[in-house]
Amino acid sequence: MKLIQKYFPGLSDEQTRQFAALQDLYTDWNAKINVISRKDIGNLYEHHVLHSLGIARVIRFREGTQVMDLGTGGGFPGIPLAILFPDVQFKLVDSIGKKIRVAQAVAEAIGLKNTSFAHERAEEEQGLFDFIVSRAVMPLPDLVKICRKNIVPAQHNALPNGLICLKGGEIDNETRPFRHEALTWNLKEFFEEEFFETKKVVFVAINQGKNNKTTITSHEDKTI
Questions:
Q1: Strand partners, 116
Q2: How big is the chain by its Cα radius of gyration, in Å?
Q3: Partners of 89 in the β-ladder
Q4: Strand partners, 165
Q5: What is the pTM of this model?
Q6: How far is the C-alpha of 79 from the C-alpha of 55, rounded, in Å?
Q7: Taking a C-beta distance cutoff of 8 angstroms, is the pair 150, 125 a contact?
Q8: Is 21 exposed, middle or buried (0-12, 13-18, 19+ CB in 10 A)?
C-alpha cells in the first residue's frame, strides 16, 4: 500500500481504504480460485495494482468516460483504475467465468459503484466505449480488430478514443502497422522499481480516420 501512496499521494480516505483492502481480498480469493500466480501474490501491489495504474500516467480519464477492460482476469487493470477514477464507468469483461466472479466479488467487497461485469468473449460484447484497456491478452493487431466495433467516434479526453494496453518487452512488430495511430510510453520513466524496466503502455487510436495522426494536447491534461 505504501507503494501506491508513493506514486499517488493525493488519494482520498475512501480510495486509500479501497486500495488497502485489496491484499487480503486477493489473498483470500486466490487460495480458492487462482487468478494470480501463488508465487506472485506477495507482489500484488507492485506487479498488479501499480502496474495497472501505469495507464493513469499517460491519461487522466475525464468524468463520464466509458472504459472496457478486456480480458480482465481477476480485475486488472480495471479495478485499480476504477478506484482511482470514481467518476468513470468501467465494464470488466472476461471469457473465464471463475475469474470474472473474483473480480466482481472484490469490487463489491470494497464498495465500487462504477463497475459492471460480463462473462463473455470480446467478440460478443456490443457495448460502445471511449477506451478499451487490457493487460497484454493478445497481439495488438488482433486486439484492434476485435475492439474496433466497440469504440465510439466522439471524444472528450486528451487522447483520441482507442485501445490502451499494458505490454512488456519488444513490441515494435506489434506497433508497426499502427505507426500513425500508436504511442508508446516506458513505465520505467514513471516508476523506479526494477519490475517496470521493460514494461510499457501502448496506445492505438481507433476510428480516427486514416489521415488523422494521433496528437496529445498537454502533459498536465493527460496525466494524474
A1: 91
A2: 16
A3: 66
A4: 134, 202
A5: 0.92
A6: 12
A7: yes
A8: middle
Residue 43 C-alpha from the chain's centroid: 18
Contact call for residues 62 and 157 (beta carbons, < 8 A)? yes
Give the closest residue to 52 by CA, choosing from 91, 97, 84, 98. 84
SS3 for 69? strand
Cα angle value 4/5/8 (rounded, 5°): 85
Cα–Cα distance between 132 and 160 in angstroms, integer?
Answer: 12
Longest dimension (CA), the chain: 50
C-alpha cell at 97: 467465468
b/e burial code for range 134-160 (CB count within 10 A of at least 16 → b)? bbbbeebeebbebbeebbeeebebbbb
| Better pLDDT: 170 or 102 | 102
What are the pLDDT digits (tens) for 1-22? Answer: 899 999 999 999 999 999 999 9
pLDDT in tens, 71-127: 999 999 999 999 999 999 999 999 999 999 999 999 999 999 999 999 999 999 999
Q: At 92, is the secondary structure helix, strand, or coil? A: strand
By DSSP bridging, strand 199-205 and strand 162-168 are antiparallel
Q: Which three cell numbers stand for residue 177?
A: 502497422
Nearest to 147 by CA among 170, 181, 101: 181
Q: Residue 197 is placed in which grid cell?
A: 524496466
